[in-house]
Structure formats: structure tokens, C-alpha cells
Design brief:
The chain has 297 residues and is an all-alpha fold. It has helices at 12-35, 41-62, 71-98, 101-108, 110-122, 130-147, 159-182, 187-210, 219-247, 249-253, 255-271, 277-296. Helix 1 packs across helix 11. The longest helix is centred in the C-terminal third of the chain and has 29 residues, at 219-247. The protein is globular, with a radius of gyration of 18 Å.
Amino acid sequence: MNNTSMPGKVEWSDYCLILLTGLLWGSAFLLIKIAIVTIPPYTLTMGRMGIATLALFVVLILRGQWLPLDRKSLTLFAFIGLFGSALPFTLINWGEIHIPSGLAAVLMGIMPITTALLAHFFIPDEPFGWRKAIGIFVAFGGLLILVGIDAISGFDSSVTAQIAMLCAAAAYAVTTTFTRLRVAHPGLIMATGSSMMGFLWVLPLALVYDRPWSLTPDLMGVSATVLLGLLPSAVGILLFFHLIRRVGATIFAQVNYLIPLVGAFLGVVFLGEALNWQLISALVLVLSGISIVTLAR
């Protein structure tokens, strides 16, 4: 099941898809903030994964395909479903209740750094050189400008929530590296199988701890959950499996720096917030960092 062939040349279409992935995953944090008001973390993860799985199964059937059910494939789906969806989604859902979004963005910013280090040791054609280091830290600098130095002062808030965010970032890094190494099935099959296993991982937790049949979510919460399932989860995971082959683990991981930028721009568009110098500077630095990492390969 090894898939360690060198990724192809990064085209403009790949950059566009990376930006689209950042847009989808960045919008997830806004949707989570809306849904988590009336839907607890386990149930929210179960709902979005269930909706994503259903949508992907429909596409799979319409294309005349089906999931392989051999032990190796199911183990692969289960690993990615746990560390790429069920675990980080739940940790982020819970963490967003207890810490500010700016601090959450900083903590999640370790994901590209961790991915680059893991790729250096486990993926022969993705060494961690000084050019990549410069690109990653330029992008991280853009993140710090965006959230402001005040976000760092939030470290005196809930330590448990901060650990949850760091664990979510680490889970994403492990998944990104593992997927680059081990994916052998087409993207649609990988997306459907891992979404299904992510749903099955969190289902018993939601049933035991949240008792979803006793909940009374509002319309906004339900709508946000449906959108989470269809866009950041279903479409996002398809883009993930497509891009990880195209651009490699380290480059794809830089999408994590786009996520808080998307959140800030959504605030400008939908909440009437000001388009300030921090946002423009952060955008320039993040895109520059991604370009440096790409050229370093």
C-alpha cells in the first residue's frame, strides 16, 4: 500500500484547489461556533461525519464503485477516520467552547511544522531543508500578525482546551504524513471509507454521553451541521486525498495557515468587520510562505 512516488509539478490549478480547501476548512470554524451552541461536541462530529458519509456513498454508487472490505483497506480507513476526522473534529469542537479563536488558530499553527518534521523522517522525497523552514515560519509569522500578540496572553486560559487543540493539530499532521505514505485506493474510495469509519468511531460516544435523541437543536445549529457535513467534510476530504498525491504532505499542510485568514475574511464579508492592515499583511506573508515551501521542493 505504499504511495511514496514523487508528487508532480505544482500547477496553478493545485494552488487554486489549496485555496479552495482553505476556504472550506476555514468556514468550518464559523459553522462549528454556530452549531455548538445547541449541539454538543460528540453529536456534532457524528452528525457532520454521517452527512459526509451519506453524500460520498451516493457519489460512489452513482459512479458504479464500492468500498473494498478487505482487512488492510478497513484498517487504513479506520486509522485515517480516527486521526483525520473523529478525534480532531471532537477536540476542536470541545476546545472552541473554552478558548478564544485567535489562540486556537495559533495552537493549530503547529500542524504544518509538525508535518514537515514527520515528512522529513518518513517520506524520502520530502526532506526538511532551510528553504522549507523559512517558508513555514514566514507563514507562521503571518498567522501571529493576524491574531495579534494578545492571543498569546490567552495561554493563561483553559490548559486542557489548549492541550486538546495541540492534540488535534498533531492528529492532522500524523494523518497527512500517513496518507502520503499509505494511500493506494482512488480518492473517492478513500474519502468514503475514512468518513464512514470516522462516523463509526464517534457514534457510540455520542449515544452514551450526549444522548442525541434528547437534544433540541435549533434550526441554525442543524443547518450549520448539514453544511459542515457537505462542504468542509465531504468536499474537503475529497480535495485532501487529491492534493496529497499532487503536492505532497509538507506543501498541503500549509493550508492550515489559510484557515484563520478565511475566518477573518468571512468576518469582513458577512459581519461588516474592517479590512485592516493586519489582515492584508497576514495574507501576503502566508501566501509568500506557501510559495517558498513550494519552490523549496
